[in-house]
Amino acid sequence: MSKSKLSLIPVTEKDSWDELVRSSAQGSLFSERFYLAAVGGNHHYYFVKQGTGTEIKAGVVVVVSEDGRTCELDDLVVYGGILFDLDPKRQMVKRRYDEFQIVEFVIEQFSKIYDSVEFQLSPQFGDMRPFQWYRYHDDYRYKFTLNLRYTSLVDISSLQEFIDNEENSPCFKNMETVRRYSVRQARQKGGRITQANNGDQLIDFYQLLMERQGESRSSAKLSSMKNVINTLLKMDRGSVYHVLNSAKEVVYAVCYGWDSKRAYYLFGAGHPEVSEPWQGTLAHWEAFKDIAQRLNISEVDMEGVNSPQRGWFKLGFGGNLAPYYHVFKKNLPNDNQ
C-alpha cells in the first residue's frame, strides 16, 4: 500500500460508520455514533480509502472545537483516533506496513485540516513510530508529544462457568487479598447489589464526590454524563449497579457500558455520609459476574489506572496492565512543507 493512493473522505450520515467500529480491533464503544451523540459536542468522522475510493482501509474519529479548527480531548471519550480495517488474513509484515502508511497519511492530512491534532488511541493501537518519526530531523516544535497512559484489562471469562462457586473461579483467585476479603466481608455484612433504571443517584453521588475533592464539574459536563448513562440504559448497552448495605441504603453506584468486544467501567461514586469498606469492591465484582453471565462478555476495561489511589484499587482486581497513548501536536505555519 502506498500512501499516495490513499484518500481521506468525510463520513456521511448514510455511511455505515459503526460497522467499521465493530470490525476494527481499535474500535470501541467510545467511537460509536450513538455514544458520541449522547456525549454531545462536535465530532468529525473520516474514512481512509484506497484506490478509486471504494475500499475502506481505516476510519478516524476526533473531538473538535466549536469552530471545527482544532482537535481536542473529552474525558467522556476515552479512546478514539485511528481505527484500522485491514484484511486480517493479510501477512502480518504487510499489514504492519499498511498501518504505518495509513497513520503517516492521516497525520499529513490532519496537519492541513486542523490547527492542532489531538486524540487518545486505544490500547489495541500498537505502533507509535509514525508519530515519533514525523518530521524526524526538524525542530522539536514540529513533533508530536506522546503521553503514555495505562489501563487494566480484566479477564472475566471464568465467571461464565463458576456461577454458583465464585471463589473457585480464576477471576476471583487473581484478585489481591484485600479485594477477596472485601467480597467475603460484604456477604457477611448483608451487602447486595441491585440494578437501577436511571443514573440519577450515581450523578448525585458523583457531583458531591467531586466537590469534596475540589474537582468541581460544570453542570454541562454532569448533564452529559447523565445523558450518556441514560442513553446506555435505554439502548441496553450499559448497566448501573447500586450497592445496598444491610439497612437497604444505597451506599455506592457504578456504571458500565459495553460493545461487541468488552465492557468498560465508566463512572462510580459513593454516598457522601454513609459508607462501607467493601462497597467499591462488591460493586465491581458483582458487575463482573453479571456482565460475564448475562452478556457472555469475557473482558472488562477498567478505563484508566493513571492516578495512585484509584489506579491501585482497579489493579487489585487482577487485570493485565495495558498501555495506550494520548498524542498531541500544535501545527505551525510551515508544518506542511
Keywords for this structure?
337 residues; alpha+beta; eight-stranded mixed β-sheet; five-stranded antiparallel β-sheet
Can I get a quick summary?
33% of the residues lie in helices and 26% in strands. The protein has 337 residues and is an alpha+beta fold. Helix 2 (33-39) runs antiparallel to helix 8 and helix 6 (177-188) crosses helix 9 (279-295).
> What's the total count of β strands?
13
What structural class should be given to the helix and strand makeup? alpha+beta
Strand order of the largest sheet: 6-13-7-12-11-10-9-8
The whole-number mean of residue pLDDT values reads 91
Draw up the topology in text.
Elements: E1 6-10, H1 17-23, H2 33-39, E2 42-50, E3 55-64, E4 71-72, E5 81-84, H3 92-113, E6 116-120, H4 129-132, E7 145-155, H5 170-174, H6 177-188, E8 192-196, H7 200-212, H8 219-234, E9 238-244, E10 250-258, E11 263-270, H9 279-295, E12 299-301, H10 308-315, E13 320-330
Parallel strand pairs: 11-12
Antiparallel strand pairs: 1-2, 2-3, 3-4, 3-5, 6-13, 7-12, 7-13, 8-9, 9-10, 10-11
Helix pairs in contact: 2-8, 6-9
Would you mind describing this structure in some detail?
This protein has ten helices and 13 strands. The chain has about 325 residues and is an alpha+beta fold. The chain has an eight-stranded mixed beta sheet, sandwiched between helices. Strands 1, 2, 3, 4 and 5 form a five-stranded antiparallel beta sheet that branches. Helices cover about 35% and strands about 25% of the residues. The model has no long low-confidence stretch (mean pLDDT about 90). It starts with 5 loop residues before the first strand and ends in a 7-residue tail after the last strand. Strand 11, helix 9 (about 280-295) and strand 12 (about 300) form a beta-alpha-beta unit. It is globular.
